[in-house]
Amino acid sequence: MAYSQKVLDHYNNPRNVGSLDKSDPNVGTGMVGAPECGDVMKLQVKVNPQTGIIEDAKFKTFGCGSAIASSSLATEMLKGKTVEEALAIKNTELVNELSLPPVKVHCSILAEDAIKAAIADYKRKQAAREAVVAQAQ
Amino acid sequence: MLKFPIYMDYHATTPMDPRVLDAMMPYFTEKFGNAASRNHSFGWEAEEAVEKARKQVADLIGATPKEIIFTSGATESNNLAIKGVAEMYAERGNHIITAATEHKATLDTCKRLEKHGYRVTYLPVQPTGLIDLDQLRQAITDKTILISIMYANNEIGVVQNIREIGRLAKEKGVLFHTDAVQAVGKIPVNVIQDNIDLLSLSGHKIYGPKGVGALYVRRKNPRVQLTAQMDGGGHERGMRSGTLNVPGIVGLGEACAICQKEMPEESARLRELRDRLKDRLLANLDEVYINGTMESRLPHNLNMSFAFVEGESLLMGINDVAVSSGSACTSATLEPSYVLKALGAGDDLAHSSIRFGLGRFTTEEEVDYVANKVIEVVKKLRELSPLYEMYKEGVDLSKVQWTTH
Q1: Model confidence, pTM
Q2: Residue whose C-alpha is closest to residue A44's, from A32, A61, A27
């Protein structure tokens, strides 16, 4: 299978590889996929709670080149977006940007799921913290 | 000097040996006769070449020339052997035994027969890749007419205990077919000692041309009969009609003769290179698993899983090396290798597997390059792998709740 130049670029120079502190209340972690399916993506966002803007994003992916490229591109797109804007990211944007063939569309869907999971985790943490604050008052 | 890309996928196909091409060339042009033309020198010349090749093929496997039927390749040989026996011996029984790790040419032939009322037992394999002889013995019934078990596996290179399988088949009065495509020319194969009744082989796996193969059909103890699967001029003792592919057959014969002559030296050299590759990888990477037993294996095969790294992404990183992977992402069906799944190692390891197939033209320099490149890319991809990170943190990956999709 021939890979697009953009997939190759992200595979050879993946952006934002790494991990953020899972226990930080401002960090949301999403882990999607399963080893037996051949894809696992971990995507993390660090949000400024005052502005709601994603200041940092990191990923690690076990999967094919297109899965790595999809998650690498997703972290690039996330940075600077608000949480709500991030939730609006659609897998088709990744498909178009990376020129993914039909058999690799599932990689982009997984990346979208990872974004949603990471933000859900962040929101859960924020809600829990607000509950604690409210209780204390 | 290394030449790129490096070819290390000799189980898929092999380049032709230049000596084979030399032997074939005249039969495309000046010696173009039809081997079935009985009344002029063009035909005699072609027939003589075919008979020489028939003997070269027979000699390599310990058969007699009359027991060799030329075909278009091993897929046809497997189809002819299995369907031909099933049809010919239908009155005696309708049960066939094969194994889960067979090539699709065997498995899909058996599946078709199931639609026509035959019953097929697909034996599981042990984690070694070998079938259990007791299970085979228990699977045989008075309706069993054929056992079809491959000699050596195309993915994991595991060599079955063919001699014992053949002995068991003989003892039970059941015919024994083996798909020996990966074994012939690479390790000693002898149809008498191994008690084989039918054997499939192919030209392009042994440095011969594509589009030609053969089926060995035993003529004595017992005399095996087949129902032809193609109607026509009654060539090849009526078992396989169609004008003989004379240049291809000449090439197959020459390829067999070269293998027979050079096998001891070649297999020792390849075993050494394969072990060099294996030892380097094992010494420099953790969490690497060899798929299938090393105890009974082709000397030029290595199949390894690099845990926490997905196979296709590994292939992308070593794109100047031609190898293959059992990963789903490299197959059209998006299913990981059924052979590796049959070993019971888990789908995750199937996704992480690479098959290295060494061959006649593999050099030590190439092996070292491939070893270093694989080590480098696996390390890089593990930096990217959330699974490796979790493994390093001591997380038991089998206990994690994954979101399967």
Answers
A1: 0.93
A2: A27
What is the percent of chain B where pLDDT is above 90? 92
Phi-psi region of B336 (alpha: psi -120 to 50; beta: other; left: phi over 0): beta
Structural domain includes residue A137:
no
Q: What is the pLDDT of residues B5-60, one digit of tens each?
A: 999 999 999 999 999 999 999 999 999 999 999 999 999 999 999 999 999 999 99
| Number of separate domains in chain A | 1
Q: Which structural domain range is residue A112 located in? A: 5-132
Q: Are A108 and A46 in contact (CB under 8 A)?
A: no
Residues in A whose CB is inside 8 Å of some CB of B read: 3, 8, 11, 14, 17, 19, 31-42, 60-65, 67-68, 103, 106, 109-110, 113, 117
Contact (Cβ atoms closer than 8 angstroms) between residue B285 and residue B330: no
Q: How confident is the model at residue A137 (pLDDT cuts 50, 70, 90)?
A: confident
Q: Is residue A94 part of a domain?
A: yes
Buried b (16+ CB within 10 A) or exposed e, B371-389: bebbbebbebbbebbbbbb
> In the annotation, is B329 catalytic?
yes
Non-local CB neighbours of B23 within 8 Å, separated by 6+ positions: B250, B251, B253, B254
Q: Are A124 and A47 in contact (CB under 8 A)?
A: no
Closest CA to B275 of B157, B165, B169, B190: B157
Chain B residues with CB under 8 Å of a chain A CB are 308-310, 312-313, 316-317, 327-329, 334, 336, 346-348, 351, 383-389, 397, 402-405
B319: distance to nearest CA of chain A, Å?
11
What CATH number is associated with residue A38? 3.90.1010.10
Contact B384 A113 (CB under 8 A): no
Judge whether A67 lies within some domain: yes
Minimum Cα–Cα distance from A18: chain B residue: B384
Where do runs of H (alpha helix) occur along B133-223? 133-139, 162-172
- Quick check: A61 and B384 in contact, CB under 8 A? yes
Write down the ipTM of this complex: 0.93
CA distances from B91 to B143, B147, B224 (A): 9, 17, 15
CA atoms within 13 A on the CB side of B376: 11
> Nearest-CA neighbor of B351 among B394, B397, B399, B393?
B397
- Are the beta carbons of B143 and B173 closer than 8 angstroms? no
